[in-house]
Amino acid sequence: MLRRFPTPSVIGFNLSPMVAKICCAASKMWHDATEGLAEMVMAEVRLLERIFSLYREDSDLTLLNRQRFLAAPPRELVDILQRSREVWMLNGGAFDPLWDAYPRRKALNRLSVTAHGG
Description:
This protein is mainly alpha-helical. It contains 4 helices and 2 strands. A hairpin with a 2-residue loop joins strand 1 and strand 2. The longest helix has about 35 residues.
């Protein structure tokens, strides 16, 4: 059953009953399609957050950084780490795929500057 909309008009032009029905049907189809799409997008975002978030204590990336291994890593994580390694090898190590390396490197740089009187 189609949803009934008020006065069938578009930009002030009255529509014939048939065109109004077609517009109502198209509007309902668009609504249903985009609602399903939004749910799919949100499910994908939740999945990626569960895998890659650095702000969640239970994300796979956080667990990998903490434990240094995962018994059953998700395919998405394995794929991105493999690609990161390829890029790391291609640029001579300028791109560091280790997410937790930055804070350690920053701390070492601070110690180095302090030791040299900077």
